[in-house]
Amino acid sequence: MIHPKVHDPLLLKEISMEIRTSVIRMLSKAGSGHLGASLGLADLFTCLYFSILNHDPENPVYPGRDRLILSIGHVAPLLYATLARAGYFPEKELDTLRKQGSRLQGHPGREHGLPGLELSAGSLGQGLSVSVGRALAGKMNEEEWMVYCILGDGELQEGSIWEAAMAASHLELDNLVAIVDRNGVQIDGKTEEVMAIEPLKEKWKAFGWEVVECDGNNHHDLLSSFHLAHQVTGKPAVILAYTKMGKGVPSIEGNYRWHGKAPTTKEAALFLQELEDSEG
Amino acid sequence: MTKRFINRGDRATREGFREGLVSAGRRHPEVVAIGADITSSVGVDLFAEHFPKRFISLGIAEQNCMGVAAGLALEGKVPVFATYGVFAALRTTDQVRVSVCYNDLHVVIGGAHAGLSVGADGATHQALEDIAVMRVLPHMTILSPCDATQTNIATQKAVNQVKGPVYLRFGRAPMADFTSETQVFEVGRGQLLHTGDDITLIATGHMVWEALQAAYLLEEDGIRARVINIHTIKPIDREILVKAARETGAVITAEEHQVTGGLGGAVAEVLAREFPVPMRFIGMADRFGESGEPKELLNHFGLNSLAIIREAKEMLTEKFRS
After folding, report:
1. What residues have CB less than 8 Å from A70, skipping those under 6 apart?
2. Cross-chain Cβ contact B103/A119 below 8 Å
3. A231, A37, A238: which is closest to A152 by C-alpha?
4. Is the pLDDT of residue A217 over 70?
5. In 3-state terms, what secondary structure has residue A230?
6. Can you give the pLDDT at residue A245?
7. What is the DSSP letter of B127?
8. Nearest partner of B202 among B155, B274, B135, B250, judged by Cα
9. Cα–chain center distance at A150
10. In what helix (H) or strand (E) does residue B252 lie, and over which residues does it extend?
């Protein structure tokens, strides 16, 4: 059965908070992993899996499903927490993240058998090309499903992303929606200091894409952006989602030092408290 | 004495790929081909002509081509992406490793213009490291057929028999076309082309013909050389290698590739474990190629039957001395 769609922003917000709680818990248990973007993208993932995507947790590979390609494999904890919350596997399994023998690899690895994974990925710059291939196959077979590809903003420094961007518009893939997590920071610091990627909107436009900008931590704004992206014909659409790294935990919000770090048990307890306090 | 192979006329192995791809396309509607600008040069043009809706031009952007191939394979297509071997195996290595191999996808990678025999274009375009790089990737199959006829068959097998990622290597220069159209070609099995118990010559690609010529000439000196064609470098046929080592006690490998990491390395890894015997390696000795006529270059770098004969005689002298 296709997963039911939630349209109430309040309920979506609640689910996002539950997912953030899982992310903090699992990363603290794992002892390593990327906290920043996993918290920052929680609202977007909630919207996708609980309101936008056609998908079926009981039949993860049903042919008519929408495909979600996570190009930034390091956001795996968020993907796992979302899939578990949607019913793909028991939430208890989240505790095994990054442990030897686990289906929850540090970066998604399909050969370990976790349901719901559309691509093994982790080397930045590859997911958009794979998404172009899948969208192209969809067009060739006259399928209705969509391909969504999640990109990081730092990842846009990879040249292959722009090869793929050129191809997607050349092939007129209006069944492809790319989403850029524009949180402004990467491991070494601010993207504009490490290697400037602006003007981003103009770049995507110049590559032949329809550009939609939104507050990536606002469910209402996200949902309307997806609806706008779906109406585009004859070319692909990109959503520049302005998010806050570490969103939901005020003491680390926007701090690039939390890009690739996991909280200690003590920190996790503090963060969970902050998360609870910030709710509502 | 086994029958001697006869050259029916020089043909480039890429011609075999060109024809084999069309045959595969005719039988399998899920086959699609990706072009990176040099489609006629690598032999994809005929497929594009026959099946224009199944040909996708993606320009000079090999990394993207490989990723798109992975995406197509995830949806049940059998994508064939051919470009020069230097780009197919080396520029896109990370895409092949993660998007293709780690996802265990049936992508057919065509490595054209393989080896020194590309000729005048020089070192940048001569793929001499592609086998080594592709060989270390988990799930990868490597096919390196020896002539145009065999390349045609290998292309079809790459599509309809191999399950995961496959790297198919072929060349540009017209070379001897001698194997039978009705030959038994099994992925993963070597071919015994000439019997003999004094020494074994193990070759791949264009060097198989040179190994045969060496064996025929050695025969005139009373030396019986066994010749084995390893058209599948991975998974390699351990059985045929160990049997040859046991029965002849001396092995020479020959390839149009660096001697490290290629056929020689693959054979040595098997024999070192299972039946160590003295070995010699014919191939590129850790250096780049240069411009020249194909056969001129092969002679210059010692990739020919004369070099094989010289090594064989030296080895046999040592064998009898001990």
Report:
1. A76, A79, A108, A118, A119, A121, A127, A150
2. yes
3. A37
4. yes
5. helix
6. 94
7. B
8. B250
9. 5
10. strand B251-258
Question: Which structure tokens are listed for A209?
Answer: 């894409």
Query: CA A168 → CA A132, A139, A201, B297, distances in Å?
Result: 6, 12, 16, 42
Q: How many pairs of residues across A and B have Cβ atoms under 8 Å apart?
A: 101
Q: Are residues B99 and A119, on separate chains, in Cβ contact within 8 Å? A: yes
Nearest chain B residue (CA) to A169: B58
Phi, psi for B102 (deg, rounded to 5): -65, -25
Task: Identify the structural domains of chain B with CATH numbers, from first to last.
Answer: 13-169 (3.40.50.970), 191-321 (3.40.50.920)
Classify the complex by whether its ipTM is higher than 0.95, answering yes or no: yes
Q: Do B70 and A164 touch (CB under 8 A)?
A: no
pLDDT at B145 (0 to 100):
98
Residue indicated by tokens 């024999």: B271
Chain A residue closest in CA terms to B78 = A137
pLDDT, tens digit, 9 for 90 and up, residues A226-266: 999 999 999 999 999 999 999 999 999 988 889 888 999 99
Q: How far apart are CA B137 and CA B3, in angstroms?
A: 38
Domains, in order of start, for chain A: 9-278 (3.40.50.970)
Residue of B nearest to A63 (CA): B75
Residues of chain B contacting A, Cβ within 8 Å: 32, 53-54, 56, 58-59, 61, 63-77, 79, 94-95, 97-99, 102-104
